[in-house]
Structures are given as structure tokens and as C-alpha cells.
Fold this sequence. Notes:
Elements (H helix, E strand, L loop, with lengths): L1 H46 L4 H6 L2 H8 L4 E6 L4 E4 L1 H6 L28 H14 L3 E7 L5 E11 L2 E11 L1 H23 L3 E5 L5 E4 L1 H5 L1 H12 L19 H11 L3 E8 L5 E12 L5 E10 L1 H50 L5 H31 L8 E4 H11 L1 H6 L3 E6 L6 E4 L1 H17 L5 E11 L3 E10 L21 H7 L5 H11 L3 E6 L5 E10 L21 E5 L3 H13 L3 E5 L2 H10 L4 E5 L7 H9 L11 E5 L6 H7 L4 E4 L4 H12 L5 E2 L17 H7 L4 H27 L3 H17 L6 H10 L9 H22 L8
Helix pairs in contact: 8-9, 10-11, 10-17, 11-16, 12-14, 14-16, 18-19, 23-24, 23-26, 24-25, 25-26
Amino acid sequence: xxxxxxxxxxxxxxxxxxxxxxxxxxxxxxxxxxxxxxxxxxxxxxxxxxxxxxxxxxxxxxxxxxxxxxxxxxxxxxxxxxxxxxxxxxxxxxxxxxxxxxxxxxxxxxxxxxxxxxxxxxxxxxxxxxxxxxxxxxxxxxxxxxxxxxxxxxxxxxxxxxxxxxxxxxxxxxxxxxxxxxxxxxxxxxxxxxxxxxxxxxxxxxxxxxxxxxxxxxxxxxxxxxxxxxxxxxxxxxxxxxxxxxxxxxxxxxxxxxxxxxxxxxxxxxxxxxxxxxxxxxxxxxxxxxxxxxxxxxxxxxxxxxxxxxxxxxxxxxxxxxxxxxxxxxxxxxxxxxxxxxxxxxxxxxxxxxxxxxxxxxxxxxxxxxxxxxxxxxxxxxxxxxxxxxxxxxxxxxxxxxxxxxxxxxxxxxxxxxxxxxxxxxxxxxxxxxxxxxxxxxxxxxxxxxxxxxxxxxxxxxxxxxxxxxxxxxxxxxxxxxxxxxxxxxxxxxxxxxxxxxxxxxxxxxxxxxxxxxxxxxxxxxxxxxxxxxxxxxxxxxxxxxxxxxxxxxxxxxxxxxxxxxxxxxxxxxxxxxxxxxxxxxxxxxxxxxxxxxxxxxxxxxxxxxxxxxxxxxxxxxxxxxxxxxxxxxxxxxxxxxxxxxxxxxxxxxxxxxxxxxxxxxxxxxxxxxxxxxxxxxxxxxxxxxxxxxxxxxxxxxxxxxxxxxxxxxxxxxxxxxxxxxxxxxxxxxxxxxxxxxxxxxxxxxxxxxxxxxxxxxxxxxxxxxxxxxxxxxxxxxxxxxxxxxxxxxxxxxxxxxxxxxxxxxxxxxxxxxxxxxxxxxxxxxxxxx
Length: 834
């Protein structure tokens, strides 16, 4: 066995030696053949009288060009001898001998090329011999150097009359190119990974519908392939594709492919599918064309996404939205019902109390009547707080832009609380630190709401001591002024830990407060929201049993705008002889409205529901209709619509005023759309009630009573400000008496001039007289008439002035008469010369 093994080994060794001898002989023969060719070449050159020097030096122009190229160039003859070489080539291969000494040499045989620069020298030798042997052009053959540089080389064989005569090598540094290619490849891999993890099928197709790219999900999804198959099976030629509009919607795959290919416009198809088990899925399919620089179709991108979960969530959101809207409607309905049900009996309570106060009562009865009115008004404040809070929370409050005097507004508000302060034996004072009248543009009604809330709280929670309100300017610019209103009291104070929650709705500093002082806990929340809405800030400083300081900072613009006054009217003679249809189903409300109007000489016809109101409109003539909204059979809105449709009736265009206990946002628009001319919100004050009626009779714009201020002339309150008068007179009685005497002397004459010039339509003189009266009104602190006289002054500047200017003049005349009567009663010692 051992002998056989030794025999085999010897045979293999002999075979290897034989192969090596054959290889050596082959190499020798090849070298001999090469030398013979060289000899033949030299012989031919000698026969042609060519010098060896010229053959190897090459063309001087070519050599000169080569030396200036960054590309490494080597030109060799058919024997591998150098014909031309440049510096760039030598730098690549670390050749440090003069160029001219290389001409005619064999670089490889002379070991002039430093092969150690390559990562794999053997590969360089093997690949070079392979290229030289094949004598076929080679492009971009890559070589890697140890220093990280990557070289690309090109090989071009040279033939003359079909006979090989040499070759040219081109060497270029391609490091940057390959680095960029690697980065691009890396980015490509990243994007492919991203696309692979996307929860959607993605396919990229060529214009011939071959797959260029499919992400892993798409590869597993036979439906993507089905896209193409379904289209190809039913494919129509492009000539048969018609579309009236490029925006036409596709309904199936075939139309989608047609659109992408023919119109080069992407599209989406959404499908709903159900499997055999009844499970429903929603699939969104997209096809989008990618165009080349010439606008031709380069590829098609297809997306196939399962949107079942999204559709389910959307359905749930829609259901949730519907439920939210239903809850909102239910809340609005609840608030409307609460408001209506409270305001209806409140109208009766306040109306009866007002009528009762006009009768002969003893002192005890008058006190009890006043208590009824106070209790009813307190309840009304609570209802209004709730409604205001809901309006603000829903963002349905719109701020007015009205020009007004800020000092006068705050002074009037402070003055209106003097009675309550005196009742509690509290000193209420107003400090105006602005030093000049501030004419601003803003919402005086919301400012009143803010200050009234804070003043009411200060007085409510102060049992002894004082309440001070201070007005001052913080910063004043060309078009804007920031003011600060501070309300300080010596009341019960607020615990430090409760201050942060003070402006939260339905929150009070102590649970016992609502039992002891009343209220909803909404007042400060409303104040905070209104201040924020007006772009201001509010702060509070307080300690228990040490009083509180509430401060607000508000911006107002200083631009001059025409005023938008709200008026009440006390010239009730215009109502005498008026024929009014009162449509009201509640007996108490009928009694109150009838009593107020009949006292003014109005003839009342009653209807207990909308149906009866319509019948009476058909058969009788009226000047005005007071229409209750909530009535049986036919409500007020339906009745109004029917009356407005009676084109042949002389009453179809009659003024109609809604009487309603509803007081929610949107009521005005609802009544206006129904064809009404105004509305009066229950419970109403007598002055408000009569004011709206007179405004509608004068065909003013839509008239309504609201939370805005109304000018009124109650007989038991001062119309002029004694505090203002004292301040102007610096408490010097002689000066004050002189001011009063001048007012009583000049005002009757000015009023007479105002009335007479209005009759002859001398509007220039009306304007000058109104301006003079306005100064006197301000001097006497008659806040209730400021807006009216300002309106007259500005209206007289228009051509023609508004129709109601005469009516406003009469109102001012009567108001001034009442003021003068009050002054004469308060200062009987002052005599006026005629």
C-alpha cells in the first residue's frame, strides 16, 4: 500500500516538473518571437532610411501637448517600447527619471513602474498582460492604490493597414467619481430600506410596464401586478382615449393608466372591497407619471395603500363631531329655554313692580316694592352672567369700534355706584390722573361690563371703609394709548392660595361666599375673558382681611371715528294716538305692555296667538305690531313671515317688533331674516320698551334692546354730576354758583336756537349750537346726554343730515329741561337774570 502511495506522489511531481518546463519553453519561444519581430521592424526602418532617434522621440507637437495634460499618457509601439510619455503618467507610477531617457525603453522590463503602489500588484500585471494580449479597446479599467486613490485607465490599440503598430494608455484619477458613486449607492440603499418599511405597496414601472423597482411589500402583493394586467387586457389605443377635461376623475384602473400614459397626469382610485367573511377594506391606489427633460414619459410610480384604519377613524370622528354638535345644540336649546322660562316671569315681576311703584304707596310699601325690584334684578344679573359666559366661551362676542370719552365713561360708572356705596356707608371715590380728556375708539359697552363687575364686587365684599377707582395713562403713542384702571377696596380680601383660581368659571374664594353674598362665580371669569379679548391684562393683589386691588390694562386706538351712539327717547308725545296690535299669550305680559302704552295714549288691540294676529292684520289697520315669539298654534316668526307675504294687504309692510324672552347670540339675525324690524328682550325697562318702539316708527335700522347701555331719565336720580361740578369748581361755592347760573341762563336760549335752526334746516348753525351745548353738558357732568349732543353735531355736518336729527334734538331739549328743573330744585338760592 505504501509503495503505491509513493508511486503516485512521484508521478505527480514528474507531471508538475513537465508542466513547468513546458511553460518555460513557451516563455522562451515567445521572447524569441518578440525579438525576431523587433529585428524585422528595425530592418524595415533601416530599409526606409528612417533614423532610430526619430522613431522613438515621436512627434514634438504631440509630446508637448501630452506634457500639459492631467491625464497620464503612455504611447508604446508594437514591441512595448516607449514612443511618448508625459509627466502625469510618471507621477502616477513614481517614475523619477527624465522623460527623454524613457523614450525607446521597455518600462516593465526595466522595472521603471513602481508596482508596489497598487493594493494588488499581481492583479495589475495579470490584467495588463490580458489587455495587451487581446488588443481590444478597454474603457474605465479600475485600479486601486494603497494610498486610497482610485485610477481609471483606458487602452486603445493602434492599427495601420490592419497591422498592429502599438497602443496608447490613458490614466485618470477617479477617486472623487467613485467616492460619489459609493455615496449615491449608500443613499440608494437607505431609500430602498425606507421604502421597504413603508406600509404601502410601491412599484416603479418603465413606459413599457417592466418592473424597475418593487418594495418588499409590493413583491408579495399579487394585486400590484394585477394593476398592469387588468389594464393591458382591456387596453385601448391612445387614439381612442377622449377626455373633455384634464381634471376628469377616473373610476377604474384602465382609465387611470390611460390618463397617465396619454395625458401624463397622475390620479387616484379609491376602492371598497369585501371578502368572503364580510370584512370590508378600503384601498387607495395612485399612479403618477415621471417625465424626462423633454416632457416624455420616463417611468410610472404606483402606490397601493390600505386605508381601512384611516377610514374607520374618519367615520368615528364624523360620528363624534355629530354627537358634539348635537350636544352643542342641546346646550343652546337648554340655555334658550332656561333664559326664556326665567325671563318670562321676571318680566312680570319687574313690570308689575314698576307699575306698582307708580301708585300711591306708604313708606313701608315703597320699601317692599324696591326690595322686589332689587331681588328680580339680582336674579337677572345671574341669568345674564351665565349667558355672557357662554357667548364668550363660544367666541361669539364681537367688539364694537365706537368713539367715546374714556374719562367720562369711567366717571359715569363710578357715579352710578354712589347710591349703593352710601347704602353701606362706604366712601366711593374716583381719581382721574389722565390730566386731559381721552377720546378713544373701542368698545365702551364691554369696558362698562368690566368696570361694573369689578366695582360691584368691591362694594359687595366691603363692609366698612372705602372703594377707590383710579384711571391713569400708562403709555401714549400716535395712534394708541394704554390705560390702567385700578379698583382698590378695604374689604374682606382674598386668601393668597385662592388668587390663582379666582378667574376660573364658577369659582369663588370661599364656598360660603355664594351663600352669604350671592352670585354665580362667573363675574371675574367674564371680566378676564373680556380683558383678554380686548388685548389687555388683568392682575390682582390681596390679603385676607386687608382688602384687594384689581387692576386692568387696556389698549385703545386714538383714531377719530364717527360715533355710534345708542339712544333712548323720552319724547313720548309721538306715541299718542298710535294703533298697536299686541300679540301675546301670557296675560301678565299683556297687562304690563298694555298699561305702559295706554298711559302714553296708545290704542291697544290684543291677540292671544299668531293665528289671531294674522286674522286681525287682515281685517284692521295698525301702525305697529308687538309680536311675542313663543305662542301656540303659530309662533311669532311664522306669523311675521305670513304677514310679509300678504302683498295685497296694506299692513304687509307694517313695523313688527319681537317681544321675546330669548336673549342668545344670533337672535337678532333670526328675527331680521323673518322680516321683523326690531326686538325687545324680556324683562325690559319701560324706557327701553318705548325707545325701541319710537325708533322703529322713525324707520331706523334694526332696533333692539340688549346688554348695551340705554340713556334714560329717571326722576329719582341726578342727571348732572355734583361731584364733577365740585371738582371743576375746586370746591369753591362762589365759582360753582356762577357756573350753575350761567348754565341756567344760556341753556334755554341755546336749546331754542337749536330747535329753530333745525326747523329752517340751517345745519351749519345747528352744528355750531350743538358744539356750544356740548361744552356746557360736559361742564355739568351730564353723561346721559353726551352721546346724543355729539351725534347731533356730527349729523349736522352731513349733507343731507339723517332724518332722525330733529327727533334727537327734541330729546336733548327735554333732557335739558329736566336737568334744569333738578338744578333749580337743588339750588333755589341761585337767581337767573332774564
